[in-house]
Each structure stands twice: as C-alpha cells, then as structure tokens.
C-alpha cells in the first residue's frame, strides 16, 4: 500500500488486538465484510506521504491506524498505512512489543479523561487539591492506561478489579475495589466512602469495560453536582431508559483521533501521542503486560476468539510478524 498526504507506511514488527476488532465484525452498524482490521502497529517507517514533517524513513514508531475504512489501514498485515498525527516516535531502548500495546487503548483513555470528562491534564499539574475519578475496570487494557494517565495528572483514583488487582496497583491506583459478588449499590457505597474518607468529592466516572455502567453510575453519582460519566460502547435501550437525567452520560469515540463520526480531536491526539512516546522513553508510563501469540499473523483468529470468549484479562494480545509461518 502507498501512504497518502500526511500518512506513513509502516513495516510492522509487532501488531496487537483490541476487543473492537471482533465487535466491529459482529456489529450490525459496521459492514466490514472480510476487511483487514486491527489498529495497533509498531515497526519502522518504510515510506512517507506528501507533507509529512515529523518522521523520516527508518524511524522506530508505533501508531494507531484508521478504523473500518480501507484495507491499507488494517494492522493485521506486514505493512500498514497510519496517519502521521496518530504515530509516535520510539526511543531505541523502548521495545516494540511494549509500545504496540498503547496506540488505541491509551488514546481511548486520554480522550475519555481529558476531553469527555474535562479533568485536569498531566501537563496542567500544579498546586492545590485535584479531583477524584472512578475508573471502572482498572485491570483492563484501557483501564490500566486510564489509571496511569489519571495519576500523571495528579488525580485521586478509585478503580475496580477482579482477580488481577496487581495491574491497577502497579499503575498507582489509590483505592482498588474487588467487584466480585457485589451489587452496583454495594460497589458504589465503597467507592463513595473511599472518596469521602480521603476528603474528595467524586463526580466523574469513566467506564473502561462497558459493564453495567448505567446502574453503577446512577448509584455512584446520585445527587452529585455536575456529575458526568463517559463510556466506550453504546448502552442498551433498556439501560438508556434507566439513566439518571441529572447525570451527563457521554460516549468516548477513539475514532475522534482521526476526526471520525463527526468528532474531531486530532490536535489533542498528536499532542498526547508525543507525550506518551516521551514517557515510555523515561520509563514513567508502562505498556500493558504482553501475551505474545505463537504464530504471528497466523494466530489472529485464535486471539480474536480468546477476546470474544472473554478469556483475556490484564494482558494485551500481541503478534510478532516474524513468527508468521
């Protein structure tokens, strides 16, 4: 494939999977047919399109390709075209397999926290007390990045996790609540008690896993001023009707990094990818734990089935191109 204006052709060393890769194919909204999907890539710049100024051929990079548009943007291939603005440079010591876990999931978390919830950004860290945020699903890929981003911004972070609480703990979460066997009301009570005992008012919720978020948000944010929740997946019609009208429910669309579906956060995305590249180099921001699939691109089907069956927790499925038979 050839890169267009302000696009890069990347020779992939590693690619990674996200749950949306199977969800879009199963969706009635997106007609993908047999289109090549996947959006997380890491490798070397092989060619640059017209007007490209930030990268040169041979640079080590990771990037987030455009979703559900054209095969040339699909990550599950040896070469992928990626917009310059959603690509970030990798220092020589940063491993491709760690960097490839970031592009889609870390940007989802950044847009959710700093655009949709309008929380203070890491670059705005100053003196004074910072607000609290509840992140539902701190051991998920997106949740792990959300906890790190929130802590980099100086926020007080309360999150939920099941059996794999080590991941949000290592990311710096202040409070980790085991949600197993508890009702949304019981979880909400623990969340609010944790915020109050630390002297925080909690009126922001980010759902990183799209599980029972309406009932949980209604319970956590009841009677709170300027309360807001952001979520990734469209909620069901039943949940739509159950929303507390006093709470603002807004969807986070990571496609906004490419100005898709009427949502344009391209400038924000470029700024934050540069920041993520710097923090990865410093070692102050970490990728998801990696589960390396054994047969490179030949393992994609197996990986997507594992995600579909909900058998992946606290890890990112990664494929090394050179392992492909």
TrEMBL record:
InterPro entries in alphabetical order: ADH-like_C, ADH-like_N, ER, GroES-like_sf, NAD(P)-bd_dom_sf, Trans-enoyl_RdTase-like
A GO molecular function held by the record: oxidoreductase activity, acting on NAD(P)H
Domain of life where this protein originates: Eukaryota
Domain Enoyl reductase (ER): 23-318
Pfam family, one: ADH_N
Signal peptide: none
Protein name (record): Chaperonin 10-like protein
Organism in which the protein naturally occurs: Protomyces lactucae-debilis
